[in-house]
């Protein structure tokens, strides 16, 4: 039997070829599935933002001044329609954020200015980036690259209402803890009557215990900008009137005003005191021919007063001025100082006043120009007519002052007035008596909204008369020897007074507690933070 080896070989090759084709087809299918899975994974990665947004978001390393970066940042309050279409960088705090599908709506805050920012999945913004931004904690400081876009409707709740930011990059510069001891939104909530439906309130102690957070609210930002404005205007107005700014010691050898309410401090091998007032040094400057002086600085009062208007440390705005013949030359200067200051505050800080009013509603501060000067006997008569029992030589109690303020507002339509010619019996030994009435003095208090914000007088500038008055008040002459000696070489007649900065701001804005106008208040129960 003859075997056809060629045919047999051909059949084997065909079987082999079929197996190879089958194997190749199997491999091809496997490769196709693998490629499909790879593409699916790629699509998933794109959706998660792990690919094309890399380098556009994340946590920056701690800035330690290792390099110079040339980058211009735009302040939030400058984000207006004029910048629509522009690309900007902004550094701000993440005030709030809310994820919604493939978008995250955020509010960025820089001091009191806020703007809405939108992070949405797009060509440069991945889902992973949106997810990252939505998980950034409130109050983190972030750098944002974005396009300014004009909006068709005002963005309610933001100061920049006509534009929003479409974010392309966002980096965390400084992280905040996820759990905050108070929410900025709660601390900034409008001060309404109970029953407004919003019962979330941040009490005073919680605010002060977490003062750094509390100070971030728009109202607090505005309060302290206005407070800085008071200092600036006090300085500018007095300098325009020929006053010279001086700086006085805060560590002194004896009580400034002869009283006991002083803080004693260790001073090497002995003791010293924190100054209750710069009065002695202001008067010494007048005796040294400076003629008109003022000072701005800390004042310390060791009074155990836990009221809405007392602090143990506050900022004193003090002035002293020589005059020619009558202390009203000084009183009129002080009155004009205040009316100029109020007018310029209402003009130059209208935005701050409005911002504070949005949280703490109050009537606009009213004043007369020139200011009302009311003599003490006339004030007593008004109080008696209102049913108050008060003697001719009695001092005013706090309730009396508040009632008088309401009576004056009703009769004269002013929140600001000067009360002149106080009873001599209730004033310090260095106050000049009224030459025409032995029961009166050449002294005055100044009031805002029914509360005293300045006390002043003509000072006794004759050393012998000053000694006589000190003895009459039982003052230890040795403790005030330096004070009396300051007038032994001739001193012009002069008058002045001291103003409490925090109290002025509190009453101008109509706030209910002086701790709202002291950045880090000190009282008998608080010496921190």
Automatic annotation (TrEMBL):
GO terms for biological process: aspartyl-tRNA aminoacylation. One of its GO terms (cellular component) is cytosol. Residues 22-39 have a biased composition (Basic and acidic residues). Its EC number is 6.1.1.12. PROSITE patterns: AA_TRNA_LIGASE_II. It catalyses: tRNA(Asp) + L-aspartate + ATP = L-aspartyl-tRNA(Asp) + AMP + diphosphate. Its main location: cytoplasm. It comes from the Eukaryota. HAMAP family: Asp_tRNA_synth_type2 (MF_02075). Belongs to the class-II aminoacyl-tRNA synthetase family. Type 2 subfamily. This is Aspartate--tRNA ligase, cytoplasmic.
């Amino acid at each position: 039997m003859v075997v056809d080896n060629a045919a047999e070989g051909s059949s084997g090759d065909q079987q082999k070829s079929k197996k190879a084709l089958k194997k190749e087809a199997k491999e091809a299918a496997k490769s196709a599935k693998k490629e499909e899975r790879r593409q699916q994974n790629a699509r998933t990665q794109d959706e998660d933002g792990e690919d094309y947004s890399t380098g556009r978001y994340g946590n920056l390393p701690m800035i330690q001044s290792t390099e110079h970066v040339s980058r211009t940042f735009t302040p939030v309050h400058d984000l207006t329609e004029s910048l629509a279409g522009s690309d900007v960088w902004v550094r701000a705090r993440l005030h709030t954020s809310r994820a919604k599908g493939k978008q995250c709506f955020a509010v960025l805050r820089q001091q009191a200015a806020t703007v809405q920012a939108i992070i949405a999945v797009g060509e440069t913004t991945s889902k992973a980036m949106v997810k990252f931004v939505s998980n950034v904690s409130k109050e983190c400081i972030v750098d944002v690259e974005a396009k300014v876009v004009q909006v068709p409707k005002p963005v309610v709740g933001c100061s920049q209402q006509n534009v929003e930011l479409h974010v392309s990059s966002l980096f965390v510069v400084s992280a905040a803890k996820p759990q905050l001891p108070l929410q900025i939104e709660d601390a900034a909530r409008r001060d309404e009557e109970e029953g407004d439906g919003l019962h979330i309130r941040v009490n005073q102690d919680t605010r002060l215990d977490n003062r750094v957070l509390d100070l971030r609210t728009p109202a607090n930002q505005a309060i302290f900008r206005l407070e800085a404005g008071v200092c600036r205007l006090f300085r500018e107005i007095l300098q325009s009137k020929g006053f010279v700014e001086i700086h006085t010691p805060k560590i002194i050898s004896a009580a400034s005003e002869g009283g006991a309410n002083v803080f004693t401090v260790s001073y090497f091998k002995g003791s010293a005191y924190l100054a209750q007032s710069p009065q002695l040094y202001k008067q010494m400057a007048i005796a040294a021919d400076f003629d008109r002086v003022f000072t701005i600085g800390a004042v310390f009062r060791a009074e155990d007063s836990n009221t809405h208007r007392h602090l143990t440390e506050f900022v004193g705005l003090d002035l002293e001025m020589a005059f020619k013949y009558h202390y009203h030359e000084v009183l009129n200067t002080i009155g004009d100082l205040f009316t100029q200051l109020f007018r310029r505050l209402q003009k130059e800080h209208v935005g701050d006043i409005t911002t504070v009013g949005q949280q703490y509603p109050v009537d606009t501060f009213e004043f007369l120009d020139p200011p009302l000067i009311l003599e003490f006997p006339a004030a007593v008569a008004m109080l008696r007519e209102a049913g108050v029992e008060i003697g001719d030589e009695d001092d005013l109690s706090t309730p009396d002052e508040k009632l008088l303020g309401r009576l004056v507002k009703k009769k004269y339509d002013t929140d600001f007035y000067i009360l002149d010619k106080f009873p001599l019996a209730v004033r310090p030994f260095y106050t000049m008596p009224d030459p025409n009435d032995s029961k009166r003095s050449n002294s005055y208090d100044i009031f805002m909204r029914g509360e005293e914000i300045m006390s002043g007088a003509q000072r006794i500038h004759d050393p012998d008369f000053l000694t006589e008055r000190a003895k009459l008040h039982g003052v230890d002459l040795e403790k005030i020897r330096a004070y009396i000696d300051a007038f032994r070489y001739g001193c012009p007649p002069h008058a002045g007074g001291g103003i409490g900065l925090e109290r002025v701001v509190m009453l101008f804005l109509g706030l209910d507690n002086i701790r709202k106008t002291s950045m880090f208040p000190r009282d008998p129960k608080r010496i921190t933070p």
